[in-house]
Amino acid sequence: xxxxNLGPCSVNNCQIRPNQYRGITEYxxxxxxxxxxxxxYNYLEVGKQLCYPHYLEIVEPDCNNGSSADNNKQDHIIVxxxxxxxxxxxxxxxxxYEKQRIEHNILxxxxxxxxxxxxxxxxxxxxxxxxxxNTFIPERRSAFNRKEDKKKVVNICYSIAAIxxxxxxxxxxxx
Length: 175
What we know:
Helix content: 40-55%
Order of helices and strands: EHEHHHHHH
Number of helices: 7
Strand content: under 5%
Strand order of the largest sheet: 1-2
Structural class: mainly alpha
Mean pLDDT: 79
Number of strands: 2
Number of domains: 2
């Protein structure tokens, strides 16, 4: 029959009255010696008992400091798969809806400001406007036409968002 660990704590003048005690084993003494804490409590012997706080202090002194836990813990890196085009359109639509219907902002037709609004509101939309621009506008256009075409891409974005959710904006397109 094994001995129940009901106390008292073997540390001299221990005033702690916990509900939990731990028995001192050969392995526990070995760990205390390896950790350098046994020197302060060299009167402890196998078979004696420690209150749980003293057990942690003597046998597991690095339990709560995180250094050994950090060494054993694997780095958890969150890898996000790239968003699909449809998911980006959905995010863009949500951003435009919030800006127009919730924050009551006016339509932003300046390409640079439009891009900034999208990217500030949703980090996953960083460079999405450039992606759309490069998709729709050929590189062989002149610099002036490319600048004017950026405005058309803003119009396309509002049109796509309106198709995706008719409540996004009041942008009307007459053909």
